[in-house]
Each structure stands twice: as structure tokens, then as C-alpha cells.
Amino acid sequence: MDFIYESCAGIDVHQSNIVVCVLHGPLTSTRPKREEARFDTTTAGLKECRDFLQSFNVQACGMESTGVYWVPVWSALCQDFELILAQPAHMKNIPGKKTDKKDAHWIAQLTRLDLLPKSFVPDTDIRELRDLTRQRKHYVEARNREVNRIHKTLQLGGIKLTTYIDDIMGASGRHLLNLLRDGEEITKSLIRSAVYTSLKNKVPELMKAMDGNFSEHHRFMLGESLDIYDFYQKKIQRLEQRISDYLVKYEREVDILDSIPGIDRITASVMIAEIGVDMSQFPTAANLASWAGLCPGNNESSGKKKSTKIRRGNAYLKKCLCQAVFAAKRQKNSLITQRFNEIRSRRGPQKATIAMAHSLLKLAYYLLSYQLTYEEYKTIQKGMPETS
Description:
The chain is an alpha/beta fold. The chain is built from 15 helices and seven strands. The two termini are about 35 Å apart.
């Protein structure tokens, strides 16, 4: 194998310290000189590490993506060195030789031979947007759990509002919940003034639905859940406003993704946060799909195909794409719906969902690469690469 760098480094990253191994010498040398040092992960320690690397004219540094501990190291060194971030699974050391110094040496050896697969690391704005969209996801899930607790409390108290109201947290449902929480005496006129639209025609049914054994304990539990729900609702709105501020510079990309069936602006923001807007980071659409974990597994031995289970990949991206498929397949007579039904009839709904999520991601790759909306793409589809 040919050596790529005359001077390179491997960094073994931990929470409190990093171990650095520098290999330097002529490219013709099979036994380069080896220098090792350990530094704290404080700002001062990382500055010392930078000076140490510069003293040996290091050209590239390899490191593994250990939790979030690599982020401060990356930020401290990215301006001065070529950095290569790799998944730990792609750079396992030789069994039986596991120490911090040997790990750093192994990483440096892989870097010198250019055998360290690079992970996708977006720029700072995209990473910050990613933090926001992921935090929003966690808040939405916490809010939904609280809605489930509200449903449970109503059922325990004999209140059957969910029989007549699809969205119990909508305007009408929330007004009725407030009446229950406040212990108001329920009358037909009170219900009629609390609900809107077609629910005004269901006042007698709602009257019966609210006649239960709703005790003081149930009112207390409902009030606690409503307060927590409101807390998360405010936090989500605050995050969405900040996400919108970040997306101002990516308005064209948001419009492109929003034009794809099933993808709205929220899903578009998640996709931009996870894959960025520069598709040159991924050589092909297939590379992007593989990175996301949407490609079927390729496991064959002795001519027999074994499991085609997909790998974990990017769980945030996969989840939002699957939700986009659920939204897109509701559109009757669309190409996505037809393709989904075709695959479902042969492979089942789960594999059909993953297959269509795969297709949506590849379509997004082409549209972002060519800066075309979905409608523009369809008009010149014959001259574009296939998406499935």
C-alpha cells in the first residue's frame, strides 16, 4: 500500500482526555517515527494539543466519533488540520491489543494509509440546526406522552369525550377539558358555548360523554397533565421559531424539499439538518441512502442470500422519511401511492414503507443536486437519472 501523508496523527478521544499519536517520516519509510502525548480536553489542553501537532507539521488527524466528546476536539483543530472522523465500527483494533496508546497508534496508521472512512460532518450552522430539530422531536414525543396520560385520566374518570372528538387537544376539546379541570357544573348551554363547528350538533352526546365519576383526584391529575402539555407546547413553538430563523438562508432548499409529495416544511427542516444542502458530500444517491440506513442488507454466502435487514443508520432521518411516506400514500392515484401498494402486495407494509422512504431520499438527493423542484423535475424527467 502507498502512504499518503508524511506526517499524520491518530487521536483516541475520551471524556476527560485525549491520547495523540503522531507518525512522521518519508513516504518511502515503512517505519515512521512515532511521537505520543496525552492532553486534557479543556480549552487549554486542546490548545496544547494543537501546538504539539503543529510542531510536527501534521497534515491530517484521524479520530473516532465517540459520543459527543469528539465535537470540542473537532472545533479546536478544524481550522489548522485536515480532520477525518470515522465510526468506531470501521476502525476496530487488533483483538487483544487494547490500550489508549495502541488505539491512537492504530488510528494514525489507518490515517497514513488513507484507510480511515470519513464520516459526514456538516458545517456549524447545520449542526446547530440539527440540535434544534432533534430537540423539537424529543419535546413533541414528551408532549404526546402527556396527551396519552390525559386520555387515560379521562377513561379512569368515566369521561368518553374521545368517542366524539378526534383531537382532544383541539380548541373545542381543550375548552371541555378546562371545564372538567375547574370542576364546573356541566350544562348544555355551557357545552354549546365551549365547542365549535359541527360539534355544536353533538351537544346531547357530549353531555352524556361528560357525565362520569370524575373526582377531585382526577381533576388534579388532569390539571397537572394540562400544565405539562402547555409547557411543552410553548417550548416547541419557541424551537420552531428559532428553526425558522436558521432556515432563512436555506429557503430555496426548503422549497425544493417541500415540493416533494408527503414532505412538509417541518420534514424539510429535519432533512436539511441531517444531510445538509451540499450533496457533493455524498458521491451518489446510493451512498446517501446507505449512510441513512435505508439500503437493504447485502449478505450472501455460498450462493444463498441471507438477511436483508437494514442497518441502524440515521434514526432521525429514517423516522421523518417514513412519516413522509405515510402522508404521501394518502394521496389517491399518485405514483408514490401506486408504488407503495405494489410493494406492499408482495413484501408487506413495513418493507414497502422503507422502500418508499429510500426512493424519497434519492429523489431529494437529485432535486437538491440539480436545484429543481419536484414539478420542474417531472417536466424534464426523461433527461434525469432514475430515482428507483
